[in-house]
Design a protein that fits this description.
Mean pLDDT: 78
Strand content: 5-15%
Order of helices and strands: EEHHEEHEHHH
Number of helices: 6
Helix content: 40-55%
Number of strands: 5
Shape: rod-shaped
Radius of gyration: 37 Å
Length: about 170
């Protein structure tokens, strides 16, 4: 299997037939990706005299040109090599894996943004709910059962004041 190496871009000739399939939007996307993570998949070229002919990777090559690169990572193959077919299938698998990783990165960034937004109001106190008085009395430290407590409830204000005095509470 051929090894990836850095080749000068000006030594690679693109066949006219291949140039017709160029999609500028795809080149832009690949160039942006290359800025983030670099060139992950090499282009494939075959030798021709003292130059090389592009076999696969037109959009990657054009993205490198658009970024002002002088060289590109390439694998030199023979025109009808079975290795080339294997490399192309590996290239497709690598491209699929790269797309998957890009989607996962996007999902992670979205999750982090949602978490940051959710955490921001909690830190600033803007999202706090005011405490409401529900009218419930705090639990007393008395060990009386609920039956005894129900029987001991005062029926009038004077009984309530007397009970508060006996419990040692302030009224």
């Amino acid at each position: 299997m051929s090894k990836a190496e850095s080749l000068p871009i000006d030594k690679i000739r693109v066949p006219t037939k291949s140039r017709k399939t160029l999609e500028p939007g795809r080149v832009q996307t690949i160039a942006e990706s290359m800025l983030d993570i670099g060139q992950q998949v090499p282009v494939f070229v075959r030798p021709e005299d003292d130059r090389f002919v592009l076999v696969d990777g037109l959009h990657r090559l054009e993205a490198c040109k658009a970024l002002g690169e002088l060289s590109v990572i390439a694998v030199v193959v023979t025109a009808e090599s079975p290795q080339h077919r294997k490399l192309l299938s590996d290239s497709t698998e690598l491209e699929a894996e790269r797309n998957k990783m890009a989607r996962l990165k996007q999902l992670r960034l979205e999750r982090e943004a949602v978490a940051a937004i959710a955490a921001a109001p909690a830190k600033s106190g803007l999202n706090r709910q005011p405490e409401r008085n529900t009218g419930a009395k705090p639990a007393t430290s008395s060990t009386r059962t609920s039956r005894t407590a129900a029987a001991a409830r005062p029926k009038s204000l004077s009984q309530w004041i007397a009970q508060q005095k006996s419990d040692g509470s302030r009224y």
